[in-house]
Amino acid sequence: MSNSNEVQSSLFPTYARYPISLVKGQGSWLWDDQGNKYLDFMSGLAVTNLGHAPEKVKEKLKLQLDELWHVSNLFQIPNQEKAAALLTANSCADAVFFCNSGAEANEAAIKLSRRYHQKVKGSDRYEVITFEQSFHGRTLATLTATGQAKVKEGFLPLPAGFITVPLHDLEALKAAISDHTAAIMIEMVLAEGGVHPVQPEFIKAVAALCKEQGILLIVDEVQTGMGRTGKWFAHEHYGIEPDIFTVAKGIASGFPAGAMLGKEYLREAFTPGSHATTFGGTPIATAAIIATIETMLEDRLPERAATISQYLMSQLNEKLAGIPFVNEIRGLGLIVGIECQEPVNEIVLEGQKRGLLFVTAGPNVIRLLPNLYVTEEEIDQALEILVGLIHDHTAVKKA
């Protein structure tokens, strides 16, 4: 027990938390316990894609709370069947495994790729190739798959079976492939790694390489899925169909949920007892998933995101043009990165004081993640604050 007079939190200090306690949310707006109002361009890190407290999801959850919460996956769960059918109807996948997070979805994808090769194909394939600056989760397997050294510090020894190569280096990728390669795992936008969209010609070459060599292609759509990029899933922009892809963040409007989706021929690898979860796909979680997807379908939200993102990018390019501090503006749909010449954490903190919430993607990149209902007026408000922040920051640096 601490001898300090200060009250110490009972939480492990795994987060460098901002000094703000958010207590209410509606649409694009959040309020803290002091009554301050914030325009939210974080969306809980690409989670609240429908905005805060979306009405249809709220109503569906209220109804489910009065009926049934948990029974375990030893029983038939009608909501789970419906949620899976909605996901496969709106994607290239044929089967779904529900879990609780993006890391768990990626764990399931890694396990499925190994088991498919070893139990179905009878081969000794187990290695997964990933890319530098990628981010796939915080479990031991997914942090090993992640192409960033900082997440691995202090967790040695790391699991075997993972190789990381530079993104867009096709020769390095080919050199890494061996008789033990089970899968290549990639994000369509390296979100945590700086908001870097994958080059179309590279991902098409990767997909062709996988087919040619009998390797499974896994696409991590945890941050880019569920309409954020202007399509249901980001890989649709590239005209490819992965064998496996994963989703989480935006799938249930803030209720903890994730899913791994795969092609029909992978079913026989995940037989009863091969993989499981206690809380994945509960009646409550799948109620939130169903309501989220039905809302997206009714309001054509992927299409809306594609349209409104064009307005966001055009305004950013216009208003930030000619500012030497800004190196590049890039992204896909409503995941946008503004790469700057210097670290931007001070700009993030000052933005909070002015009522705008956004986040970084690495030290020098401002990341914008508005919800899919964001309006032109809200974009104008956000950019007025953001442009002012950048101008003020550069003026201080000059002084």
Describe the 3D structure:
The structure is a single chain. This protein has helices spanning 43-46, 55-65, 78-89, 102-120, 140-145, 170-176, 200-213, 283-298, 301-319, 345-353, 376-398, and strands at residues 22-26, 29-32, 37-40, 95-99, 127-131, 162-165, 181-187, 189-190, 196-197, 216-220, 244-247, 258-262, 326-332, 335-340, 356-357, 359-360, 365-368. It has 399 residues and is an alpha/beta fold. The strands form 4 sheets. It has a 7-stranded mixed β-sheet, sandwiched between helices. A 4-stranded mixed β-sheet has the order 1-2-3-15. A 4-stranded antiparallel β-sheet has the order 13-14-17-16, covered by helices on one side. Strand 5 (127-131), helix 5 and strand 6 (162-165) form a beta-alpha-beta unit. The chain starts with 21 loop residues before the first strand and ends with a helix.
